[in-house]
Design a protein that fits this description.
CATH class: Mainly Alpha
Structural class: mainly alpha
Strand content: under 5%
CATH topology: Farnesyl Diphosphate Synthase
CATH superfamily: Farnesyl Diphosphate Synthase
Largest sheet: none
Number of helices: 14
Order of helices and strands: HHHHHHHHHHHHHH
Helix content: over 70%
Amino acid sequence: MRYFSLLYTPPEKRDVVTALYVIDAEIRESAQSVNHDVAHTRLQWWRQEIDRLVNANPQHPATRVLGSLDAGMRKGFAKLHELLVAADMDLARMTYLNMNELRAYSARSGGAIQELIAAALVSPQELDEAARLAANRIGAGIRQTEMLRDVRQDAYDGRLYVPLDELEKSDVNIDALRARAVGATVKAVLGQFHAHVAADLEAATASIPRGMRSHLRPLLVMAALHRGLLQKIARLDYEIAAERIELGPVAKPWIAWRAARKAG
């Protein structure tokens, strides 16, 4: 779905947004390495690379794109350390007691990158506080949508994102999330999780200031695509065990075009 975000990004900003998506993907992939020593080594390299980026001496092709920007923008990229904090949490297989704890993690894991993309999109203007918060919340909602879609695979890999209070309330354990069939109790838990994520993503989208909506069109496209994915998961009654649920080849461009048009 990032392809459609880039499609509606102004050409002169596309390289920067692409570079941010590449860095996000590489850091996440590092945290998912089977070998923990390899994962820690890769994440440590990225910590040093982000510091090199801020100090105008990056090595990675993606960070070199960002390193060509002015000093003010480069300093802002220190926020990429938030992705590394989230990656460390993933590597430690941390769990989350409730939605508030999960939102705090999601603000780092998904929110920080969308916040940086938003800042790049409005540059040389400053990203105001309302738009910054909205961008972060959209990124968090995107990340939580991915969690819902991938809940069985994540559970199989030892990662648990569904809040523990919801699981305990329904007496659902990680083995139930790993199962090949999605039982009624698990579906009820996933339905509750869906409701939280859908409401958060809708509120985040609505909170983007009117004057910023056209500038942040790529974020609105991403938000709309993930709302569409949430709706499809619910329509399929949370049957996430049999296959990875995705939007179809017709739905993606249609939803993206409508969101881009609505953004102005």
